[in-house]
Design goal:
The complex is a heterodimer of chains A (777) and B (182).
Chain A (H helix, E strand, L loop, with lengths): L1 H23 L2 E3 L12 H12 L5 E7 L3 H16 L6 E3 L4 H12 L1 H4 L10 H16 L3 H7 L7 H10 L6 E2 L2 E2 L6 E7 L7 H21 L7 E5 L1 H35 L2 H26 L1 E3 H5 L1 H18 L6 H27 L4 H28 L14 H8 L1 H21 L17 H14 L6 E7 L2 H20 L3 E4 L2 H4 L3 H10 L3 H12 L10 H12 L10 H10 E4 L2 E11 L2 H11 L4 E5 H35 L2 H22 L8 H23 L4 H25 L5 H24 L8
Parallel strand pairs in A: 1-8
Antiparallel strand pairs in A: 2-6, 2-7, 3-6, 4-5, 9-12, 9-13, 10-12, 11-12
Helix pairs in contact in A: 1-11, 1-15, 3-9, 6-7, 6-22, 9-10, 10-11, 10-13, 10-29, 11-13, 11-15, 13-14, 13-15, 13-29, 14-15, 14-26, 14-28, 16-30, 17-27, 17-30, 19-25, 26-27, 26-28, 27-28, 27-30, 28-30, 29-30
Chain B lengths: L2 H7 L6 H9 L3 E11 L7 E10 L3 E8 L3 E6 L2 E5 L7 E4 L4 H15 L2 H7 E8 L2 E8 L2 H4 L2 E9 L2 E9 L4 E8 L3
Antiparallel strand pairs in B: 1-2, 1-11, 2-3, 3-4, 4-5, 5-6, 7-8, 8-9, 9-10, 10-11
């Protein structure tokens, strides 16, 4: 026996050592896309790439508020000036002219390669004559001042068209030369980071730089002491979410440990028992994390956040052991007595959690594996290690004050049954009648970003006209050049649709980098110096332009004819960043993304895209895609919850072998789930997928209570002890999950709240429905 | 409106504040214009004519009829140009184009009698009497100075007769204005 125990302790210590070694070599991930699904379609994969790495993910929207408008303008200029000196920000835009200078110069230099207006006809005598007549008219018009600046170099007007195409039509409101919100309460800046959106450490550095630059700008501009800095954008969200996640995980783990330890110390009145009682929890947590590390290669921060819940669940096993050992009996006797129930309890919990293994959310799959491994470790330590460590002549714990309230419930079971039946029925009716269905339909409810931050983001995006795209054209091709050519064909189609006002505008990779074929054709369209000089001379006949005015034009065309074609490598940096977000390469397939603006006639655009008959082209409606995704998640969550529930029921039926007993165990679970769901949807609240997962966990956790109630002995002493152990165990669970409901992260909050309510109800209902069998002699 | 004649007759007290106040009282106006532009890129001047419309505080429209129809409309920060063909239409933000924005603001703020707005861009000198005044606007911001040398506006009472602009490159525009009866 002793040798066997030594072996158990040896195995335990070895398992802990291996777990610690595994954990030490694993990275912690805080990428929230783990709680997005493994992407179902190619189009959605592009979207995830965009979110993680695209230019949009590198944008930080900055607002400065809380001072008079002229002070804010000065502050905006000072802040932008500071940031432009940092290598972390390739582009900082606040509406000042300087921000555009580099971009405009790049467009200017390459206008004959970039402009779709460059054709051989454009540079014939007739083409030039037409352009010059139009110039003359423009000079006399309100546009004169603009045209005059570029006339001598660019009489065919390539640059004006290009600026329009490339800088977009929507310009933010401006005052004192910088961007403002329309109400002039906030000055607005847009900074683009060098590092990608998913590099959270890099983004964190960028945010710190902005904060420091703001503080310095505040010192430079007097009277702005009260001004505030607001930042938003995907990177800001990622950094904040990680901070919140780390804070919540740490804070709630410590709080839960302290509260559970305090409760157990009060119950056991022995520090030694407390430490022993926490051993299964600690072992479970280590083994759980190690299992996830082994299975997934990384551990998600949220999974650790749920470590808290394991404290609540795994601590139960030691509680059952310590509390149910009456004075004069040995822990081994207790274990032999309660083992069948304990084993069945652990198995039902595992059955419940195992449904989560099949979730397409990596985060939930991790959580399932973590819980299963953790619970097996915790119950094994309780069964085979703890008895060896308990002191000789172990003084059992007094059931104390924990049993009476539940015993009271059991005594009044006869009429309380009716109350619970009525409650359950009422809950079912409420759920069925819930207005407009009880599902949350907005996918943003799954986002870890607080609603207030999402609102600020929408406001600032609206003000600066930053991309907030619903419709995309996605083109796949086997090479970069083919993707660019496809993009050019699609651009021609879309230009036609813009003219027909089916949409307001669009962006496309070929605008920043035309295909080599197109660039070469444009370069070839430029005539040689002598031909151009003669054509121009003839075209100028009879027009009042100063002689020799167009010498710069002749020189520019000659230079453009000799210049190399633009490539991805030689693009100016702001173009390269834009191109990187619109043209992506993934394992040999090139994808061009064309975001559409202001789509007025969806049907016509969709039809035209089909008629284009270009293989690899998809017209994507992000709203529909995200709605469809949400529906997929909901269906999956419902399926998983139902399967989990069914597996639990099958397990109970197989073990209990009596419909009557299965009913006694299952009834409290069903009632608790129904009432919890009704409470969660009270008023106009909606259920999220996370709530649904919480409901499944109620079954996984709560089944332990009803099993113990159903299996309890009816001798008074043992009964009080077993009921006390359940109450204590339940309190620990409610503490663990209840604390999570204070988290600002929806996934933690929703599941925490659901399980805390459900577990409490489950215990009370079990006391009535499972434990209420009259124990008359 | 009752104080107006008294102020106008009392030449001693007449100054920029009074001129601005009188201009400010005009809530809407329309006029015919003829503009003559002398540009260094051309060997002969360009002449155009049409209608001007003003609606307080910040809407100005210049509708050219000859030689080609064009509508040049300013509403707040937005400048819209509608040409004869749709491809000529464009919308600009005045703050994005200081070379146009400064010029437009000088004329619009004068029409509105908004001295603070004028002084944001220009140093303002007034000459003459209430019945024959000449306003000289010289840009103060270096950015605007790059494009614009001066704007001279002449008028009588609350009516504007001529607007002359001289650009930094020597190009000039003289616009004579005949206001419709109001």
């Amino acid at each position: 026996m002793t040798r066997w125990r030594s072996a158990a302790i040896g195995i335990w210590l070895a398992a802990l050592a291996v777990s610690i070694a595994l954990i030490a070599h694993t990275s912690l991930s805080t990428d929230m896309s783990a709680f997005l699904p493994r992407s179902p379609s190619a189009a959605q994969q592009v979207l995830v790439d965009q979110v993680r790495n695209g230019a949009v993910s590198r944008l930080i929207l900055i607002a400065v508020e809380g001072a008079p408008a002229d002070k804010l303008a000065a502050l905006s200029k000072a802040l932008a000036g500071q940031l432009r000196q940092e290598a972390e920000f390739p582009s900082v835009n606040n509406g000042e002219e300087t921000a555009f200078t580099a971009e405009r110069q790049a467009i200017w230099r390459n206008r004959y390669l970039l402009s779709p207006g460059v054709t051989p006809e454009r540079f014939t005598e007739q083409g030039l004559r037409q352009a010059l007549e139009s110039d003359l008219q423009l000079l006399g018009s309100g546009m004169g001042t603009l045209v005059k600046q570029t006339l001598a170099n660019d009489p065919t007007g390539e640059i004006l068209g290009l600026i329009d195409r490339l800088t977009g039509a929507a310009q933010p409101h401006a005052r004192d030369g910088v961007w403002f919100s329309r109400d002039e309460r906030r000055a607005i800046l847009v900074a683009q980071t060098r590092v990608a959106g998913f590099d959270i450490d890099g983004q964190q550095r960028a945010l710190t730089l902005i904060e420091a630059a703001f503080a310095a700008a505040q010192r430079d501009v007097p009277g702005t002491e009260a001004a505030r800095l607001l930042m938003t954008g995907p990177a800001v969200f990622a950094v904040r979410t990680r901070a919140t996640m780390e804070r919540d995980a740490t804070r709630f783990s410590i709080l839960a440990t302290v509260m559970v330890a305090g409760l157990l110390l009060f119950a056991y009145r022995s520090p030694r028992l407390l430490v022993l009682g926490l051993l299964p929890v600690l072992s479970g947590a280590l083994v759980g994390v190690a299992a996830v590390a082994l299975g997934f290669g990384f551990v998600h921060g949220i999974t650790l956040g749920f470590g808290v819940t394991l404290i609540g669940e795994a601590v139960d096993y030691a509680i059952y052991l310590f509390t149910q050992t009456a004075p004069g009996t040995s822990p081994d006797d207790t274990l032999r007595r309660i083992w069948p129930t304990l084993r069945l309890g652990v198995l039902t919990s595992i059955a419940g959690f195992s449904a989560m293994l099949f979730s397409s959310f990596t985060g939930f799959a991790q959580l399932g594996l973590f819980s299963i491994a953790g619970l097996i470790a915790a119950v094994s330590v309780t069964r085979w290690v703890l008895p060896a460590l308990l002191p000789r002549g172990f003084a059992a714990v007094d059931p104390g004050i924990f049993a009476p309230p539940l015993l009271l419930l059991s005594r009044h079971a006869r009429w309380l049954r009716v109350v619970i039946a009525a409650l359950t029925l009422a809950a079912a009716v409420l759920l069925l009648l819930h207005r407009g269905g009880f599902w949350q339909e907005d996918i943003s409810s799954l986002s870890p970003i607080p609603a207030a931050d999402q609102r600020l983001d929408r406001e600032l995006r609206g003000e600066v006209g930053a991309p907030d795209v619903r419709y995309l054209l996605v083109l796949a091709a086997p090479s970069e050049q083919q993707a660019l050519q496809a993009s050019e064909r699609a651009s021609r189609l879309l230009d036609g649709l813009v003219a027909q006002q089916a949409l307001a505008g669009f962006d496309a990779p070929d605008r920043y980098l035309p295909s080599e074929q197109t660039q070469a054709a444009r370069r070839a369209a430029l005539p040689d110096a002598e031909t151009l000089r003669q054509s121009l001379e003839r075209a100028l006949t009879g027009l009042p332009f100063r002689p020799d005015l167009f010498a710069p034009f002749l020189a520019d065309v000659a230079a453009a004819k000799a210049a190399p074609l633009l490539t991805r490598e030689t693009l100016p940096s702001s173009f390269a960043l834009k191109l990187a977000s619109l043209l992506l390469e993934r394992s040999g397939t090139w994808t061009a993304v064309l975001p559409l603006r202001g789509v007025a006639d969806v049907g016509r655009v969709a039809d035209a895209v089909i008629k284009l008959n270009e293989p690899g082209t998809t017209f994507v409606d992000l709203k529909t895609e995200s709605d469809r995704l949400l529906q997929t998640y909901q269906q999956e969550a419902v399926t998983l919850a139902l399967v989990g529930g069914l597996v639990v029921l099958l397990l109970l039926s197989a073990s209990l072998r009596s419909p009557r007993r299965v009913f006694a165990v299952a009834a409290p679970l069903v009632a608790a789930v129904a009432v919890t769901a009704a409470l969660l949807t009270a008023g106009d609240s909606k259920l999220s997928i996370f709530h649904l997962v919480g409901l499944l966990l109620i079954v996984a956790v709560g089944s332990n209570y009803s099993l113990f109630f159903e299996r309890q002995r009816h001798e008074d002493e043992l009964r009080a002890r077993s009921v006390a152990s359940l109450a204590l165990a339940n309190l620990c669970t409610v503490i663990g999950f209840g604390l999570l409901s204070f988290s600002g992260i929806p996934v933690l909050h929703d599941i925490g709240m659901t399980v805390a309510i459900g577990a409490l109800l489950c215990l009370a209902f079990s006391a009535v429905l499972s434990g209420g069998r009259p124990s008359k002699p | 409106m009752l104080v107006e004649p008294a102020l106008a007759q009392n030449g001693g007290n007449w100054g920029i504040a009074q001129l601005m106040q009188r201009l400010h009282q005009v809530k809407s106006a329309s006029a015919q214009f003829t503009e003559r532009k002398t540009l260094h890129v051309l060997t002969e001047p360009l002449v155009s004519s049409g209608t001007l419309l003003y609606l307080a505080p910040d809407q100005v429209q210049k509708i050219t009829v000859l030689p080609k129809r064009e509508r040049f409309a300013i509403d707040g920060d937005k400048l819209t140009i509608d040409g004869e063909t749709e491809s000529r239409n464009r919308t600009l933000s005045l703050s994005e184009h200081p070379e146009i924005g400064g010029l437009v603001e000088g004329i619009r703020a004068t029409l509105a009698g908004d001295l603070p707005a004028l002084e944001r861009f220009y140093s303002v000198h007034l000459d003459g009497t209430a019945d024959d005044w000449r306003l000289l606007l010289q840009p103060t911001a270096p950015k605007l100075q790059q494009f614009l040398k001066s704007i001279r506006i002449a008028g009588s009472g609350n009516k504007i007769h001529t607007v002359e602009t001289e650009e930094a490159d020597g190009d000039r525009s003289e616009m004579s204005i005949v206001e419709d009866a109001r």
